[in-house]
């Protein structure tokens, strides 16, 4: 049970890191995620069925996600479409594109295909206990992605990207084009989301055009849980760690709701309700903390 929660949390944690970039770093509400997640799954599965090397297929999935994110940013930047609507437009278009990629089918199974996960399992059998092989693999994958992302945000480009979400005018005054930065940031975000979708397809054994339904809510809830329950910091390394931990905690909550919700007459159909209520609670707690902090500051000044 615990291994399953950790593996799911780490797979979807890569998606959460992508949502973290747009939600916290860029302040760009991006709904492309609901389309780029199944896009990564669809590209991964179709490449595998065509005989493409699995690791190359993973890169194709990542590149597809980057392209989808860049389309959203270009619609927003050059057609003056609000960011929220730009994401919805790309997400809607991706639904049809994903069905096309899957050969006009909504679901394509890969149960008999050799995947990266089966390759890793074959190599590590006898070295690592069977129940922990996937967990070890995804811990390594999550750490690699997190470290690469941390290194990126320590570069000049990454630090400028971080400044864009806080003060766009300051970035413009430095002679940097914010449109270019948004295109890079939203592209990178959706690349990570598609990468997560590619791993999820291999873990689940299929790609489905509906895999991304509500995934943005899961990503937002995970980011917020990580910020509330793990630790507070402005350091990018800590923030990305919190995003990963938030994903694991979120999937722990979903697991309890899925398997023990019947004790309070809940069904799996109520999981979206739990996600929504969870986000509302976190927002309310956040607001109450800010109000208390403001009141305390006012008392001190008196």
From TrEMBL:
Transmembrane domains' residue ranges: 5-26, 55-75, 84-103, 132-153, 184-205, 211-231, 238-260, 272-288
UniProt topology in membrane: Multi-pass membrane protein
Species annotation: Geotalea uraniireducens
CDD domains for the chain: TM_PBP1_branched-chain-AA_like
Stated name of the protein: ABC transporter permease
Record InterPro entries: ABC_transp_permease
Record's keyword terms, sorted: Cell membrane, Membrane, Transmembrane, Transmembrane helix
Subcellular location: Cell membrane
């Amino acid at each position: 049970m615990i291994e399953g929660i950790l593996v799911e949390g780490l797979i979807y944690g890569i998606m959460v890191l992508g949502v973290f970039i747009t939600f916290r770093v860029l302040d760009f509400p991006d709904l492309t995620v609901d389309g780029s997640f199944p896009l990564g799954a669809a590209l991964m599965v179709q490449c595998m069925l065509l005989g493409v090397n699995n690791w190359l297929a993973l890169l194709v999935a990542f590149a597809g996600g980057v392209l989808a994110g860049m389309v959203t940013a270009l619609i927003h930047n050059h057609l003056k479409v609000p960011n929220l609507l730009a994401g919805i437009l790309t997400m809607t278009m991706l639904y049809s594109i994903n069905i096309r990629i899957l050969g006009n089918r909504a679901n394509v199974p890969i149960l008999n295909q050799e995947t990266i996960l089966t390759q890793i399992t074959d190599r590590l059998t006898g070295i690592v206990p069977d129940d922990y092989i996937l967990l070890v693999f995804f811990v390594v994958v999550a750490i690699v992605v997190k470290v690469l992302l941390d290194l990126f945000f320590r570069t000049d480009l990454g630090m400028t990207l971080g400044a864009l979400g806080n003060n766009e005018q300051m970035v413009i005054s430095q002679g940097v084009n914010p449109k270019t930065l948004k295109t890079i940031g939203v592209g990178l975000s959706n690349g990570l989301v598609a990468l997560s979708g590619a791993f999820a397809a291999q873990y689940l054994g299929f790609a489905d055009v509906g895999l991304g339904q509500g995934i943005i809510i899961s990503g937002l809830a995970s980011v917020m849980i990580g910020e509330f329950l793990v630790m507070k910091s402005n350091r990018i390394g800590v923030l990305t760690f919190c995003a990963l931990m938030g994903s694991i905690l979120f999937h722990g909550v979903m697991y309890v709701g899925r398997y023990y919700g019947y004790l309070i007459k809940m069904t799996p159909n109520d999981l979206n309700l739990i996600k929504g209520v969870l986000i509302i609670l976190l927002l309310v707690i956040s607001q109450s903390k800010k109000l208390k902090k403001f009141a305390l500051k006012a008392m001190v000044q008196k």
